[in-house]
Amino acid sequence: MPSATMNTEEVRAVWTSEKGSMAKDTAETRWPKIIQGTIDDLGKAAAVEDVDEQKRAESIAIQIALKDLKQGIEQNKPLTPLRDDGKPDIQQWNKQLAAIGECSWNHCPWLFGECYIYRFIQRILNSSKHWRNYDVFKSQKDSTFIKSRAAVEELACRYMQIVADTHVAQNESKEEAKKLLFIEMTEVALWGNATDLSLLANLTLEDLQNLQGRDAIQKSQRNIVDNDTDDVWAYLQRTAGQSSRQVDIILDNAGFEFFTDVLYAAFLLDTGIATSVRLHVKEFPWFVSDVTLPDVESLFYHLESSKCFPRREYLDQLVPRLREFFRSGAITTTSDPFWTTPYSFHEMTSRAPALFKELQDSYLVISKGDLNYRKLTRDGLWPHTTTYEEALGSLGRQSGVKILALRTNKSDVCVGIPTQAKVDALNEEAPGGAWIQNGKYAVISFNEGQ
């Protein structure tokens, strides 16, 4: 068993050749399906009647290039340098590939290999005339969001009930209710990639102030294997008097999860926890469903559509409220090229120093989802009892970055488990590492960067 106090440079990254790993399964089965999905999407888009012949012909060339990529993955061919597409980052990608050395699809660092795929796809599109701004994953994002109809409508109702129509969260005499609301909304953001709210505490306003409400929330917390909610709340209470309290949210998935993230941002503003919220999106389509700038307007387009969401009573109250946050500048969006690189966040200090400074200046940084968690922890095979602070490396101790990770476990890395006995119990409960891979367990991990 490796030491629980390993140096970050000593921790081995997950490779796609790792037996029994999520990385291996992803490389062998998931990657080819993802590429095939992009091929199918382009075929459908090019078949539309109003697509001219030049654009249609170009789509065929793109599909051929994507088929070659898929075949290379299926045949476990070596990763090769990316061809120039006029973008300044290609050189850095190829330098990192050269530093890794000889590797193939089924034997490469998982984090690099997976990031490389999405940059490869974007290189193909960037090199085209008619498709360079096309999102090959948009139709998947949209259809998945629409399937979340019941959860969206239920959550709209819940939000208007607990925040917009009451002042409980701002009432100084009801601190316990405020904390319970914070826990509930944090869990909404945590479990936001689910298509229903079965893991969330569905409490009435009165429930928040009694034992039943606490029990309901605690029950939903059972599968949160590292839960630092109390630490986050203590930090927020201790620093509530700061004049500027900008919260940064590093986004994950579009659709329902992004909806929950926008609600979380609204909650932080409505309750005075934050004075402003900045949402970090990706510069181009990334990991199928990550939020890009066009996905922001797409969210509102769908929320305002009675065809997509016919139960309008609460959505018609909520959506204008959310729109106003964006219009007024209380919620803003930003992007940085660093988010679409293969680098772990450990390298932010040297690769993106201006971004690192922005996060240092933030009141609270909230990192959403599995990929961001993998990058926070350098996608390393840490002992599970390693502290979150240690696994953060340069973003941990004395970094000045107050960072909260909300992540459902869907890969091979998980730290912050308090004891080995707890790890053993989880392995017995969900054998074969299922508790770090199946998405049914989660972490709410916080480090204050002191």
TrEMBL record:
GO cellular component, one term: nucleus
Identification of the protein by name: Sugar phosphate phosphatase
Key words, A-Z: Hydrolase, Manganese, Metal-binding
Lineage: Eukaryota, Fungi, Dikarya, Ascomycota, Pezizomycotina
DNA repair listed as a keyword: no
The protein's Enzyme Commission number: 3.1.3.-
UniProt cofactor(s): Mn(2+); Ni(2+)
UniProt xrefs under Pfam families: ARMT1-like_dom
Similarity section: Belongs to the damage-control phosphatase family. Sugar phosphate phosphatase III subfamily.
Domain notes: Subfamily III proteins have a conserved RTxK motif about 40-50 residues from the C-terminus; the threonine may be replaced by serine or cysteine.
Catalytic activity as recorded in UniProt: beta-D-fructose 6-phosphate = dihydroxyacetone + D-glyceraldehyde 3-phosphate; beta-D-fructose 1-phosphate + H2O = D-fructose + phosphate
GO molecular function: metal ion binding; phosphatase activity
Enzyme class: hydrolase
Gene Ontology terms: biological process: DNA damage response
InterPro entries with a match to the protein in the record: ARMT-1-like_metal-bd_sf (IPR036075), ARMT1 (IPR039763), ARMT1-like_metal-bd (IPR002791)
Biological role stated in the UniProt entry: Metal-dependent phosphatase that shows phosphatase activity against several substrates, including fructose-1-phosphate and fructose-6-phosphate. Its preference for fructose-1-phosphate, a strong glycating agent that causes DNA damage rather than a canonical yeast metabolite, suggests a damage-control function in hexose phosphate metabolism.
Residues annotated as domain Damage-control phosphatase ARMT1-like metal-binding: 26-425
Protein species of origin: Penicillium capsulatum
Domain of life: Eukaryota
